[in-house]
Amino acid sequence: MQMRPLPQTPAAPQLAGPALRAFFRLADAWKLRIADQRRLLGDPPESTFYKWKRQQDGALGRDTLERISYLLGIWKDLQILFPDPAQADAWLHKPNRAPLFGGHSALERMLSGNVADLYVVRQYLDAQRGWN
Fold this sequence. Notes:
By secondary structure, the protein is mostly helical. It has one domain (about 15-130). The chain contains seven helices and no strands. The chain has helices at about 15-30, 35-40, 45-55, 60-80, 85-90, 105-110, 115-130. GO terms for molecular function: DNA binding. InterPro entries: Xre-like_HTH, Xre/MbcA/ParS-like_toxin-bd.
């Protein structure tokens, strides 16, 4: 018996525009490549990604909205932990000796494609700010 994936239930339509606008601002601040942006959003088809980027709106599945939510939480945590916005944005790209990252950057961990890795990075940063 072959298992079919569950259909992507659309997220609340009123959240899509603000979520995408916030994501693309965050992607600019973090200087993310297009391939990395797509990966963090869950690998949407290229045409869908560019439509979202152009229109800053569109139908989002729950998975994509969850991903954006974790990313915004990570951004917020970094802004709290590092008073200098440039330092906060750069942290994501720097190698990290914490066991969670094994010498790789947080961004490398987040680019695995698993939403769970976004969650883990968010949880790590929440703990660093004493908010767990």
